[in-house]
Design goal:
InterPro entries: Invertase/methylesterase_inhib (IPR035513), Pectinesterase_inhib_dom (IPR006501), PME_Inhibitor (IPR051955). By secondary structure, the protein is an all-alpha fold. The chain has eight helices and no strands. The N terminus is likely disordered.
Amino acid sequence: MKTLIFLCILLLCLITHCTSCSPTTPRTKYNTSKYIRVSCRQTLYPKLCQRSLANYATKIKTSPKLLATTALLVTFNATRSTSKRLRELSVNRALKLKPGEIQALLECVEEVNDSVYELRKSIKELNDSRKGPEFELRMSDVQTWVSAALTDDDTCMDDFTTRGRVRVLVRRLVVRIARLTSIALAFINNYAAV
C-alpha cells in the first residue's frame, strides 16, 4: 500500500514537473511575450515592433539572434510586398498619373528593389553568423546592408517632389518598411554587441 502511494505521488510529481517545463505553458508564453515587449520598447517604433513580432514570440523565445533574424525576415517580406505594390501603382491607368509621378514611382520601385536585395543578403549572412573570429566582420556587413536598405527607403521618398494622393499612398507604404527596417537594425546592433 505504501509503495502504491509512493508511486502515485512520484507519478504526480513527474506529471506536474513535466507540465511546468512544457514550452506551451502560459508562464513560458508570458516570458516570451514579455521579452518581445521589453525589447520593442528599446526601438524607435515600439507599437509597430510589438504588432509585427508578437506572433513570433514562441519562436523567438529570449534569443537576441532569433529576435534580430525574425525582425529582418518580417522587414524583408514587407519590403518585397511594397515593391510589388509600387510596381502595380506605376502601371495603374485608373490613377491617371502625371509623367513626373510615373517617373518618381519607377525610381522608387528601383530603390525599394535595392532594399529587397540588401535585406536578402543580410538574412543569409545573419543566418550564417556564429560567434567566432569572423563574427564581427559578418555583423558589420549585415549592419551596412540593412543601413543601406534604410537609406534606399528614404531616397524613394525624396524622389516624390509632387504633392497629391499618389505621394500620400507611397509615403504610407514606404514609411512602414523604413520603420520596420529601423527596428530590425536596432535588434541587429544589439545582437552584434552581445
